[in-house]
Amino acid sequence: MPFNVLSDAPAVDDLLDFQRYLVPLKSVLCSATLDTPFTVGIFGPWGTGKSTLLRLLEDELKAFSSDDVRFVCVRFNPWIYRKESNVLIPLLNSLRDALNESPFEQARESGKKMFDVLVRLGADIVLKSFTAGVVDMEKHDK
Question: Does pTM surpass 0.70?
């Protein structure tokens, strides 16, 4: 007796007509006059296509090319790190990796700076754990 299994993977095809969201999102994000920082939130229950929408938007942004506007898309799955005490470190690592792999020199320079931040954060965490919170990087520097 055959049975159907639902996949949790983002859809490859736009079966939910996300073009109605992609077109305005892309026009806003690709505007050379957009002031940053700028934040977009995508909310919805499990299975409503949030990851699919993000993947489709990533494809649209990668296809866009302009001297004024450039995109570096960073994929990060927080579920993988749900048991981590500090999810900021894996997020920053993902951001740094994406910047380092970018074709844009300015993004790669930012990735190098991100590495310095991560080293400092890591050192701070290690110091705090070894000294029961008595010493941190700020106190060490002083």
Answer: no
Tens of pLDDT, residue by residue over 52-85, are: 999 999 988 888 766 666 788 888 888 898 888 8
CA distance 125 to 35: 34
Would you call 47 helix, strand, or coil by DSSP? coil
Does 103 sit behind a cis peptide bond, omega within 30 degrees of 0 on the bond before it? no
CB atoms within 10 A of CB 129: 9
Judge whether 89 and 121 are in contact, CB under 8 Å. yes
Beta-strand (E) ranges in 77-119? none
Is the dihedral angle over the CA atoms 47, 28, 35, 100 positive or is it negative? positive
Q: In the block, which residue shows the tokens 């992609």?
A: 22
The number of helices, as runs of H, and strands, as runs of E, in the chain is 5, 0
Backbone angles phi, psi at 64, to 5 degrees: -80, 135
For residues 107 and 72, the answer to whether their CB atoms sit within 8 Å is yes
In single-letter form, the type of residue at position 21 comes to: Y
The per-residue pLDDT for range 117-131, each reduced to its tens digit, is 766 776 666 656 666
* Structure tokens belonging to residue 65: 């090319």
